[in-house]
């Protein structure tokens, strides 16, 4: 997700060489993750089912939906609409299954001492939902007779994503403002709060600039215009607060910065914010917004580079670091 969205933002920002390199990386990782997930489902199905029925982990499965749509958008940008459509259909089916399964788990298996909204990654449900809107709207004009139905579905999903965001952000704000916050609560995936608003902005901008040809959808244009701008403003408002959380954790409470896979959940929102700002600048014809977007693209790339170097360093240390000494047989 993180690599793919930064690649797409670079391509939209006319830095195609960097975008193509990052897309190649993300495509390879995507294929590897698909095979790894299938292998886990076959070989370790009990562990997979435990994750899918855990209120703390089930919503993380929506990353598969978002990753498929991000990869599909990259394929569409490179003139492969059929492959993009196939990924969108797979993502849509998976989204339908995960939506009702995850909320079923939340209703029937969660307890007051169970999943915490801050740690549960629930906002990934909005990310997965809005990613379907972005890719679906892009490929709908090439879908022939199915195009109108895809446009209608895209508008419906955009509304569902907004409703879910309104529900989850209320719970999230209640949690962080009315309960004690510890350094362990300030995790990189908090940035998904901003990322969910950014991808909703991106989806709204795509709906604005794409002509559906359906009069009743065109009548929704003023509502989409205003709501999209508000979503972008809301995403922007969160960035300084999230930075403040990081300063408090690492500067005030002195928690050292170390690489963890969760850092990628910080890179994705930054890349999505950059892409959403670019899309909105096109929809609003506002050059100042484009200048902001071009700056954010490089910030997102810097965050991606730092996280990738952290991953490489950790992997290198795991291979070259000191190994435990073998225990002599006489001590067994």
Descriptive notes:
By secondary structure, this protein is mainly α. It has a single domain, classed as Voltage-dependent anion channel (Glycosyltransferase), CATH 1.50.10. Helix content is 76%, strand content 0%. It has helices at 2-12, 16-43, 45-52, 62-77, 81-108, 117-120, 124-139, 147-178, 192-209, 215-218, 221-252, 264-284, 287-320. Helix 1 (2-12) runs parallel beside helix 4 and helix 4 (62-77) runs parallel beside helix 7. The longest helix has 34 residues, at 287-320. The radius of gyration is 21 Å and the shape is globular. It starts with a helix and ends in a 12-residue tail after the last helix. Residues 327-332 have low confidence and may be disordered.
Notable traits:
mainly alpha, Glycosyltransferase, 76% helix, disordered C terminus
């Amino acid at each position: 997700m993180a690599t793919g969205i930064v690649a797409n933002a670079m391509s939209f920002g006319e830095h195609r060489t960097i975008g193509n390199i990052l897309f190649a990386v993300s495509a390879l990782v995507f294929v590897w993750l698909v095979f790894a997930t299938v292998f886990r489902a076959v070989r370790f199905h009990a562990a997979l089912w435990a994750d899918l029925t855990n209120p703390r982990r089930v919503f993380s499965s929506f990353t598969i939906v978002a990753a498929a749509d991000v990869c599909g958008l990259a394929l569409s940008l490179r003139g492969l609409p059929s492959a993009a459509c196939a990924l969108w259909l797979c993502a849509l089916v998976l989204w339908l299954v995960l939506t009702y399964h995850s909320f079923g788990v939340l209703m029937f298996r969660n307890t007051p001492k169970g999943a915490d909204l801050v740690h549960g990654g629930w906002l990934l449900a909005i990310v997965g939902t809005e990613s379907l809107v972005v890719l679906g709207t892009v490929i709908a004009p090439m879908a022939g007779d199915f195009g109108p139905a895809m446009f209608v579905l895209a508008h419906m999903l955009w509304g569902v994503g907004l409703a879910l965001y309104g529900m989850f952000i209320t719970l999230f704000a209640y949690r962080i403002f009315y309960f004690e916050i510890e350094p362990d609560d300030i995790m990189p995936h908090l940035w998904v709060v901003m990322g969910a608003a950014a991808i909703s902005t991106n989806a709204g901008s795509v709906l604005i600039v794409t002509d559906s040809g359906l009069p009743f959808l065109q009548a929704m244009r003023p509502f989409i215009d205003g709501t999209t701008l508000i979503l972008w403003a809301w995403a922007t408002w969160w960035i300084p607060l999230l930075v403040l959380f990081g300063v408090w954790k690492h500067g005030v409470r002195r928690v050292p910065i170390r690489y963890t896979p969760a850092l990628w959940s910080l890179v994705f929102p930054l890349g999505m914010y950059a892409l959403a700002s670019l899309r909105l600048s096109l929809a609003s014809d506002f050059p100042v917004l484009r200048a902001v977007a071009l700056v954010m693209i490089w910030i997102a790339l810097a965050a991606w580079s730092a996280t990738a170097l952290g991953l490489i360093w950790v992997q290198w240390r795991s291979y070259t670091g000191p190994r435990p000494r073998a225990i002599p047989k006489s001590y067994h």
